[in-house]
Design goal:
Strand content: 25-35%
Protein name: Alanine acetyltransferase
Number of strands: 8
GO molecular function: acyltransferase activity, transferring groups other than amino-acyl groups
Order of helices and strands: EEHHHEEEHEHEE
InterPro entries: Acyl_CoA_acyltransferase, GNAT_dom, N-acetyltransferase
Keywords: Transferase
CATH topology: Aminopeptidase
CATH architecture: 3-Layer(aba) Sandwich
Radius of gyration: 16 Å
Helix content: 25-40%
Distance between the termini: 15 Å
């Protein structure tokens, strides 16, 4: 069975980015991102009430890592490693089946610069090589063409369309599910 037992949080680096653990000092930026309607347009999740609620989310992320349930990274530029510009991570880890769901978001000031692509490539490699995942899945809102294009660019295949899959803000919404199988398995 899959286990996520890292002795310390795995900091990842790419050419331009550092993917690091969340800190409570990221709360203001994360709050701003999670209440920005441009960023959250296709992320169907309740908005946090205040910065304190986001601090609880960050604590939950870090406890999730310590418990081996998830890995959530802050995306930052190498030249400004303390300034959060986005997040990426693995959630809903299915240990018995060696699967985890990937999710990400990025501040609009950094859209269309290849940042998510760079972060997702590093995260996929880590998931397959270090976490020993067999499958990475992604669940996106059907209107999120930018996310769909990123997933397809990185080899994900659309596996399902779940019609009226979940209820959010008074509506039943559809989900698209994408999957990527570890090429080394």
């Amino acid at each position: 069975m899959l286990t996520l037992n890292f002795t310390k949080f795995p900091v990842l680096e790419t050419e331009r980015l550092i993917l690091r653990e969340h800190s409570l000092s990221d709360a203001e930026v994360l709050y701003a991102m999670r209440t920005d309607e441009n960023i959250m347009k296709y992320i169907d999740r309740e908005r946090p009430e205040d910065v304190q609620a986001v601090k609880k989310v960050i604590t939950k992320f870090n406890e999730g890592f310590e418990n081996g349930n998830n890995l959530a990274w802050v995306i930052a530029l190498k030249e400004k490693p303390t300034q959060m510009i986005g997040t990426i991570g693995y959630w809903q880890t299915d240990y018995a089946n060696h699967r985890a769901e990937i999710g990400y978001m990025l501040h609009p000031d950094f859209w269309r610069q290849g940042i998510i692509s760079e972060a997702i490539k590093k995260t996929i490699d880590f998931g397959f090589e270090q976490m020993n995942l067999h499958t990475i899945k992604a669940n996106i809102n059907t209107g999120n063409d930018a996310s769909r294009q990123i997933l397809l660019k990185h080899g994900f295949i659309k596996e399902a369309l779940f019609r009226q899959d979940y209820y959010f803000k008074g509506k039943f919404l559809d989900s698209e599910i994408y999957g990527l199988i570890n090429p080394n398995h």
